[in-house]
Amino acid sequence: MNKKVELSDLRSQRWFGASGQPGNHKSYRTKQMGFTSEDFRNKPVIGILSTWSDLNSCHTHFPQRIEEIKRGIWQAGGFPVVMPTLSVGETFVRPSTLIYRNLLAIDAEEILRSHPIDGAVLLGGCDKTTPGLIMGAASMNIPAIFVPAGAMLRGNWRGQTLGTGSSTWKALADFRAGKIDEETWRSFGEGTSRSPGTCNVMGTASTMTSLVDVLGLTLPGASSIPAVDSRHSQMASLSGRRIVEMVWEDMRPKNFVTAKSFRNAVIADMALSGSTNSLIHLVAMARRLGLELSLDDFASASETVPVICNLQPSGKYLMEDFYYAGGLPALLSRLKGHLDLSCLTANGRTLGDNIADAQVYDEDVIRPVADPVYASGGLVVLRGNLAPRGAVLKRAAADPKLLQHTGPAVVFRNFKDMLARVDDPDLPVTADSVLVLQDGGPVGGPGMPEWGMLPIPKKLLAQGVRDMVRISDARMSGTSYGTCVLHVCPESRVGGLLGLVRDGDPIRLDTKARTLDLLVDAAEIEARRKAWVAPPPHYERGYGALFSEHVLQADEGCDLDFLARPGDIPDPEARFS
Ligand code: FES
């Protein structure tokens, strides 16, 4: 250990080390909880920020992991304290977890700031919990290590292996087309999720935990360990030990996570064919660290980095297979030529050191660069008059026939309108149509709900159509697939051109040219713009109003403007007890 910090430097000493009434008050109140002076005196206090709740189905194993993390902290000479945070379970939170990602970030930052905490273990994994915790810890900038929840086991149903979400969406299309009955549909769903842990495909959860691993904010390879594997427990305990050392080494996020670390994360994202949500979250996380990351960084990496991770929804396998194939360290070992190996990581070693001995144990799950799943990156960033500030398409999960397509728009004014009309037999739609969903953006949704994989109209499903070009300012689940253009920016509710599209307007998608254009003449567009009236706000008060009034657009990471800006917040003085 490279000790840089003395006991008197610890934040917690301002509480516990203070002489006279303030210090004594903190001390006897700690003893009130059953601790002795030996338990907490002269030790780094480590906050375990837990996103556990009874309404986060992916985090049901966290109570046990917390005990394992505590064990490691005690062993290393720290004092563990558990601090519950907002839970943000993807499945149960409405209208959108992205809204609450920002509230979790506030929660995490202010918990760390207002308490006698020297270092933090961040316990998350379900989609928004990872960026939310990292954003908060980055802004607070005290030593922090992330413990990813780990993915659930492979789904299993009637002898078939199932991926969370990805298999479900296909079965849902069959159900909507009348090919399977209600009972089959229900039992299918139960087979997809059969253990604690996050979705078992390379969806948003596994993408984000993998990228945080690449950034160096976990123990190396932690993100690939399945939730219920005993090595996950070991990793939790080792993370507890390590955070105590990180406090003494003064390993704060801003000291070692750099622009090069983020560049590595973008490269890994392309090779993983990661979730489109990662663009929003990585940008938001980088900005919290005072680093600039733009859609152009993703666009250029996408052209040079092949997809070598053969996982659903872009490929064949699941997260459990990925771990057995060597996991993230093995994948990164195949990308050495693209990565900056000098980046420092939470264990105090470089990325290059961490992957030096990594091996691939299954060449079909983690492909050689010379034999990739897709020759270029999974994501493509589009620009054009419909998206002057960008839009994104998961190319690897789209029908190749639709990647260059021009068709007439079928416009839904909002999600409610889409639900009401998409299956109307009289809807003037064909397989060549372009489905357009308006008002699904950061302010409009609100929070860009995962509506971007618009359902294929039933009458087309019956004809065997399984993919169409779909365009929205919303997001889509990382488990989803299809030719879905997402995150159109600026969004329709703040005056973006998407909101001016009308039925029948021709729209051209060209992924080779990386463009997305409304083929309507400028005078007509101008006339529509003049006639456009912004819809009334969703919220008159409360957090929803705060979010809507301050949320940034997708290309800026959808953080709140006053959280994303630079500037220091004073550390509280403990003597005012
Ligand atoms: Fe929690 Fe997918 S619902 S990770």
User: What percentage of residues falls in helices of 4 or more residues?
Assistant: 25-40%
Distance between the termini: 34 Å
Q: Rg to the nearest angstrom?
A: 24 Å
Strand content: 5-15%
CATH fold label of the largest domain: Rossmann fold
Count of distinct strands:
14
Specify the CATH homologous superfamily of the largest domain. Answer: Response regulator
Main sheet properties? 8 strands, mixed
Q: By helix and strand content, what is the structural category? A: alpha/beta
Q: Give the integer mean of the pLDDT values.
A: 94
Q: Looking at the structure, what is the overall shape?
A: globular
Stretches where pLDDT falls below 50 for ≥5 residues? Answer: none
Number of helices: 22
Strand order of the largest sheet: 7-8-12-11-10-9-13-14
Named once each, the bound ligands are: FE2/S2 (inorganic) cluster
Please write the CATH class name of the largest domain: Alpha Beta
